[in-house]
Amino acid sequence: MSATTIYRDATVFTGEAAVAPRECFAVRDGLVLAAGDLAAVRLAAGAHGADTPPEVIEVSLGGAVVTPGIVEGHAHMLMLGESLSKVQLRDAGSLTVVQERLAAARAAAPDAPRILGTSWMFDIFAEGERPTAAVIDAVISDVPVILDANDLHSVWVNTAALAAMGITRDTPDPVGGEIVRDENGDATGFLLETAAMSFAWGYLDSVRSEADQDRYLSAAFDAYLETGVTAATEMSFGEAELATYRRRLARDGRLPFPVTAHWLLTASGDVATDVAQIARIAAARDELAAEFGTQWLQIVGVKFILDGVIDACTATMRAPYANGALPGPIWEREFALPVAVAADAAGLRLALHAIGDEASTIALDMVQECIRVNGARTDRRPRVEHLEYVADDTIARMAALGVTASMQPVHCDPAVLDNWQAVLGDERAHTGFPWHKFRNAGVLLALGTDAPTAPHFAPDNLFIALTAESALDRSRAPYQPERVFTPAQALEALTLGAATATGREQEFGRIATGARANVAVWAANPLAGAPEALLGSGAALTLVDGEVAHRRQA
Ligand SMILES: [Zn+2]
Fold first, then answer.
1. Given Cys at both, which of 15, 105, 243, 247 links 68, Cβ 3.0 to 4.6 Å?
2. Strand order in 177-181's β-sheet?
3. pLDDT in tens, 114-141
4. How far is the CA of 494 from the centre of ligand 1 (A)?
């Protein structure tokens, strides 16, 4: 008989908000053997009264709260790992501070072939001003500098980077993107949406080494394990990710925790080209499963980015922004519908980035078209990502169609909403991120952080879900606090909800007999303590398949 460990003296949240917490759980062979009161769990482990067999070990957790490990509902693992090594600009606050930090990074790494930065905020620019290469050139002009916006939907670059990317005045804008230009037609150093992806990310893809990628992936796993995450949903999977994960699987035969991936589609503007991507993705899914099994990495679907973001006025809305802009979607229906149907027919699930209310309408039209053409299925599990501003009729439709709402509390931290509210400029500014409406409608909620577009710390994300307050600036008023979750509701959406969205809820996301023993023991009390105690806290202990994957240093 193999060894059994009973974790006792705890408050065990099972993943289901409706189930009262248990007092202990037992792990055998990497799986949860039982959860319940101590007597029942001892019985399940083969112990009778004081007669405990030697292969049963009891570990006291000293009254800590235990939950299923957090299932990160929306992540970009390699980008997170890379961003952890970039110049951090989220709290820079002004152009001068950005320049100082870039100059310091250059001075610290005089031989670096390029300088990368992340998470600059739109509100560092005066009203009507936009990022320009000149601001960066003033401090670094000899090597490329590439700075991701906070939301990862645009990049700000210097003149050396424009040259390295091959952007000239004759370079056309890609479909769904813009190379911002001055009155002479010259690029100014600001790339939006697919222009950011194809030029900046494409350039970085071409210069990144395999060793860089391997390091980034490891850094992301480590960072997540510290914060109690034991599964992640990859939302921009592609060839580079596939190669990196394959190297890791070939080296170790496993990953630090299971990952579920959606392959990011690119809109080419040609239906046949777009549909051809589907066959490649289905083949990659099948090859990966044949070679490594599905325990650690599963490609389960595709990701469409239907629109941009509200901050840059690129999210597709039903009514114009305050400045009168009303941009169309990145995927028009005539392209989106046939590609969605092809993906669905290949058994690939849809994850649909839709931030504006018109984009989420298109998203549901895509789901409905899949049902119409391919028939009803119970394992379809479509999901819409972000849903920052969403119409009530869309929420009702999501409930009727069984569509998951994948949302990120960190995206409505009040400290990052000033520009978001200003560009909407009307009552929409006060009715965003309506978690309560999704709950009331019975829509499945999967919470995540979308790291690195926002901080990856699960306890801080939970804090915002519980309070609608800012984790970044405690002086801020809460944003629409009627939206908040109870602790049990939020923890369910962070664990079982996010697991159910991936289709892997039997495997993880719950502390129940037969599930993988992927568990977080919390340093602060997420169920009953003051929410402030969560800020900056983490997991005291993280288990993956019953093994210690992280233990906080005393
Ligand atoms: Zn994302």
1. 15
2. 87-88, 115-120, 145-149, 154-157, 187-193, 177-181
3. 999 999 999 899 988 999 999 999 999 9
4. 16
| Per-residue CA distances from 38 to 59, 67, 518 (Å) | 12, 17, 20
pLDDT digits (tens, 9 = 90+) for 4-13: 999 999 999 9
Share of the chain above pLDDT 90, in %: 90
- Residue 74 CA, ligand 1 centroid: distance in Å: 6
Give the Å distance between the CA of 97 and the centre of ligand 1: 27
Task: Check residue 49 and give its pLDDT.
Answer: 61
- How far away, in angstroms, is 178 Cα from ligand 1 center? 20
C-alpha 59 – ligand 1 centre gap (Å): 38
> Residue 433's closest CA among 360, 512, 355, 495?
355
Q: What is the pLDDT of residue 152?
A: 78
- Span from the CA of 81 to the centroid of ligand 1 (angstroms): 14
Sign of CA dihedral 60, 62, 63, 69: negative
Angle, helices 271-292/333-345, rounded to nearest 10 degrees: 30
CA distances from 457 to 38, 225, 448, 449, 553 (A): 32, 10, 10, 8, 17
Residue 47 predicted with pLDDT over 80:
no
Q: pLDDT > 70: what percent of the chain?
A: 99
pLDDT score for 1: 55
- Expressed in angstroms and rounded, the spacing between residue 110 Cα and the centre of ligand 1 is 32
Give the Å distance between the CA of 447 and the centre of ligand 1. Answer: 12
Question: What stretch of H or E contains 328?
Answer: none
Structural domains of the chain ordered from first start: 1-68+486-554 (2.30.40.10), 71-75+209-425+440-480 (3.20.20.140), 80-207 (3.10.310.70)
pLDDT confidence of residue 162: 97
Ligand 1 center to 6 CA (angstroms): 38
Query: What's the CA-to-centroid distance between 305 and ligand 1, angstroms?
Result: 9
pLDDT tens-digit series, residues 229-251 = 999 999 999 999 999 999 999 99
Cα of 119 vs centre of ligand 1, distance in Å, is 13
Q: Judge whether residue 184 has pLDDT over 80.
A: yes
pLDDT, residue 301, reads 98
Q: How far is the CA of 75 from the centre of ligand 1 (A)?
A: 6
Using the Cα atoms of residue 431, residue 436, residue 439 and residue 440 in order, give the sign of their dihedral. Answer: negative
Span 458-464, mean pLDDT? 98
What's the CA-to-centroid distance between 450 and ligand 1, angstroms? 5
- Cα of 44 to ligand 1 centre, how many Å? 42
Q: What spacing in Å lies between the alpha carbon of 546 and ligand 1's midpoint? A: 30
